[in-house]
């Protein structure tokens, strides 16, 4: 009997470093760029190697510019993974930048990422899902294949409120971050990939997948947070989300974060982050279950592989940036 071919999905990790979490949160000391990459990256690479998975790491350019991170970042490419651009300064208010500032931000990040890894990024994800029409125009002009910054959920304001409650930010800093994690109307954005046509060219938009119909988050950090209360119900939630993706023919693009693999035993300084009361071994064990559910149901690709397959699809919707909530 011929085995049915599994549908595709993609997997990516936003390589936010310790300093970038501290900067966004308003904590002192981020300017010295404290880093956990030398601890994190070998742990994640081993996890992926054991499962024969190749994913996309969205790298912050500032990290690639620092010599202390070069060996760890080069290991990502040496293990056959893809790198993407996650901006240079990792400022979630990127949408407030001028066109010239955005172009400079992307160009500097590209140069340092390529120098560190040997790969030029062709996929982009904005820090904190920050996005604007100007960002999209610059990406198209710089000949990027895809953007992966949209996060179609209604819960962004709740995540932002939680983050702000634990921060020490001034009114001016809060104003800059007022769109962190997105707006309520982001839940109206399309869940499936689409092609964006602009004056400067076109891009494939590959949204971070949320649960079909309900538009609630299903990325790993959210599942781990639910697992603090009930690991069994957290996994049931994820299995239901994957089942709905298959039912509605959504090819999921699942997002990972560094703190999905790190716990209170690694980083007591980041205790404000959800699920950081769990030790790392418990997180890695749950991550193993999450990835098993994903790979049992889908063939997992990198972001660019996913975007290229979507670009060839005859039925991919074509939109102008003005048609989506930005």
From TrEMBL:
SUPFAM superfamilies xrefs: Glycoside hydrolase/deacetylase
Pfam families the UniProt entry points to: Polysacc_deac_1
Record Gene3D superfamilies: Glycoside hydrolase/deacetylase
Gene Ontology MF terms: hydrolase activity, acting on carbon-nitrogen (but not peptide) bonds
GO biological process: carbohydrate metabolic process
Transmembrane parts of this sequence: 222-244
Protein name stated in the entry: Polysaccharide deacetylase family protein
Record keywords: Membrane, Transmembrane, Transmembrane helix
All residue ranges annotated as the NodB homology domain in the record: 20-154
């Amino acid at each position: 009997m011929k085995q049915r071919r599994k549908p595709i999905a993609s997997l990516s990790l936003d390589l936010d470093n310790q300093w970038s979490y501290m900067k966004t949160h308003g904590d002192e000391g981020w300017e010295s760029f404290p880093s956990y990459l030398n601890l994190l990256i070998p742990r994640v690479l081993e996890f992926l190697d054991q499962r024969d998975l190749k994913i996309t790491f969205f790298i912050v350019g500032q990290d690639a510019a620092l010599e202390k991170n070069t060996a760890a970042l080069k290991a990502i490419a040496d293990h056959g993974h893809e790198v993407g651009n996650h901006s240079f300064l990792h400022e979630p208010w990127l949408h407030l930048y001028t066109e010239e500032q955005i172009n400079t931000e992307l160009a500097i990040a590209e140069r340092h990422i390529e120098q560190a890894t040997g790969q030029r990024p062709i996929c982009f994800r904005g820090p904190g899902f920050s996005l604007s029409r100007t960002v999209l125009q610059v990406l198209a002009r710089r000949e990027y294949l895809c953007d992966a910054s949209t996060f179609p959920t209604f819960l962004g304001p709740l995540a932002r409120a939680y983050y702000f409650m634990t921060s020490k930010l001034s009114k001016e800093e809060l104003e800059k971050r007022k769109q962190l994690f997105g707006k309520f109307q982001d839940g109206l954005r399309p869940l499936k990939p689409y092609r964006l046509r602009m004056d400067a060219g076109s891009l494939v938009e590959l949204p971070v997948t949320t649960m079909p119909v309900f538009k609630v988050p299903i990325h790993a950090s959210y599942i781990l947070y639910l697992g603090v209360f009930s690991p069994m119900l957290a996994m049931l939630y994820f299995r239901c989300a994957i089942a709905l993706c298959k039912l509605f023919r959504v090819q999921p693009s699942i997002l990972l974060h560094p703190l999905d693999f790190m716990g209170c035993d690694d980083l007591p300084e980041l205790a404000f982050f959800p699920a950081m009361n769990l030790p790392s071994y418990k997180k890695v064990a749950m991550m193993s279950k999450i990835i098993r559910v994903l790979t049992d149901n889908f063939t997992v690709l990198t972001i660019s592989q996913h975007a290229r397959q979507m670009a060839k699809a005859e039925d991919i919707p074509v939109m102008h940036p003005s048609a989506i909530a930005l």
